[in-house]
């Protein structure tokens, strides 16, 4: 087998990655995935003599990553792997849309972010899936929504109140984030600010992923104190968003006590982030080679008090919430995604773990402080709205314990180190467990050490289809809580 084995944040040289024929590449990729590996990235890179296609697979048991590639010169198609490996469906569609190389026999080759690369603009307008029947009707929601929310369209095919099919159309924003990284690839401060804007509710998640990738390419290592503070900020972001989701879920079922209490607790957490770096969402925290803000002794003491107080309040609020019959009646057995479906679709994060599919980058491919102590993956089996809500509560408690342990054992150390140029003709894979799940940035450099390709994957990329599966055979009135139980990102998808 010709796969290059590597680790999270370990630099590999592009010349060490063999360029296979598409048929050999496809066969080896399918065999690896059938053996139990997981598809992390699948993307193309324009070269002088064609297009290179790269695949990154994960072995979550051994904490290993595997990379392989093939080259397209004049070929304009290949045999799709999606009919055999469903988790590849969106990756193949994206590759086709960006480079015009068609995966033949792909079961549903619909647009991803139509027109963003100018490849397929001459194709006819996309037609939504439709059903016929005397009592069949369609309900369209969005892309303009009644609130401060980004665009996305939901098309329901219903028989009465029952949803038979939900089709989700995204890609309305056409932000061109990856192209903006390439256009400004020497402006490091600009790039760091841009990484904070990939998904506004995952500032620490994405900026940390990008920063660690560049640090690896610069062959620098930050102090344990820097790693500790970065981890504290990442876990504060996780707690804040889990609380926000519990508040939103409560609001959607008219459980107003939970809506108010969890919302107030979330404010306490984002204010704690602001006490560290001056911004409630963590903007400005990361610095290439370190961090811009330290945690003072006073802030540390305040955080210790706050974490214990939040832990008590969350425990009480969730105990009351999940002992409520009216809450359980709406949450339990609603929007089920079973373990086999979660695995086949390649789900990540809380959506995967709530369905019994055990994936967590902090444990499987550790980074920063997670390298120094074990983290136990928390899973539930029911795969319903209840599981996706309740797993947030136990992850909040776990995050509080992580923060308390770090703050009680934090060591001294430099806040930054000097950085040099990026290693030329290289690749690095940077994985982070954001609050939604696995964030993956892959960066390739050219012969001069400049970024020639960056491939960004927000966990929402993996999980949007699962929302469509979850609402099948449900009442359309349950869509809001199914949607909130995933809480996926439009901007993280619309790159």
Reported for the largest beta sheet, the result is:
5 strands, mixed
Number of helices: 15
Poorly predicted regions: none
Mean pLDDT score, rounded?
Answer: 94
Shape: globular
Fraction of residues in β-strands: 15-25%
Q: Terminal Cα separation, in Å?
A: 33 Å
Overall description:
It is a single chain. By secondary structure, the chain is an alpha+beta fold. The chain folds into two domains: 4-104, 2-Layer Sandwich (Beta Polymerase, domain 2), CATH 3.30.460.80; 177-459, Cytochrome-c3 Hydrogenase, chain B. It has helices at residues 22-34, 89-99, 177-183, 188-195, 203-217, 224-252, 256-277, 297-321, 325-331, 339-345, 349-353, 361-364, 385-408, 459-470, 479-486; strands spanning 4-6, 12-13, 19-20, 38-47, 50-59, 64-72, 77-79, 102-104, 136-141, 153-159, 162-169, 286-287, 290-291, 426-433, 438-445, 451-457. Helix 6 runs antiparallel to helix 7 (256-277) and helix 13 (385-408) packs parallel to helix 15. The relative contact order is 0.15. The mean pLDDT is 94.
Which short descriptors sum up this protein?
Cytochrome-c3 Hydrogenase, chain B, Beta Polymerase, domain 2, 15 helices, alpha+beta, 495 residues, 16 strands, four-stranded antiparallel sheet, single chain, 2 domains
Quick summary:
The protein is α+β, with helices and mostly antiparallel strands. It has helices at 22-34, 89-99, 177-183, 188-195, 203-217, 224-252, 256-277, 297-321, 325-331, 339-345, 349-353, 361-364, 385-408, 459-470, 479-486, and strands at residues 4-6, 12-13, 19-20, 38-47, 50-59, 64-72, 77-79, 102-104, 136-141, 153-159, 162-169, 286-287, 290-291, 426-433, 438-445, 451-457.
